[in-house]
Amino acid sequence: MRFIFFSALVLICQVATAETVQVKYHGGVALDAFACADVKESGDISRICYDKAERYMVIQLKTTYYHYCEIDAATVQGLQTASSKRQYFETRIRGSGADGPFDCRTHPIPKKYRQ
User: Fold this and answer.
1) pLDDT surpasses 60 at 59
2) Pairing mode, if any, of strands 64-69 and 35-38?
3) What is the pTM of this model?
4) Helices H / strands E in the chain, number of each
């Protein structure tokens, strides 16, 4: 009985402390539904977080988080495995011009992440 009580208490504490990051031009985003990976081999890209069900990526460039909408899992996987993550990001995700192929200004932010 004591084990069940402490297990429940730990679970409640974990839910209460879900990490939230501040996304530029958007605000706070809770990362509890994301699969996040720290990036060690890239100077600019520090972390990649992806919510596959919502096709929504949050990426940390240096110290700032940005978000990308309607981004498919294959593109995120390509970014994670690219030998030059920055080059992959610039050419396939950020794209050219003001609104790249996954820019949240021209693609809808998933409902659960809207403010």
Assistant:
1) yes
2) unpaired
3) 0.82
4) 3, 6
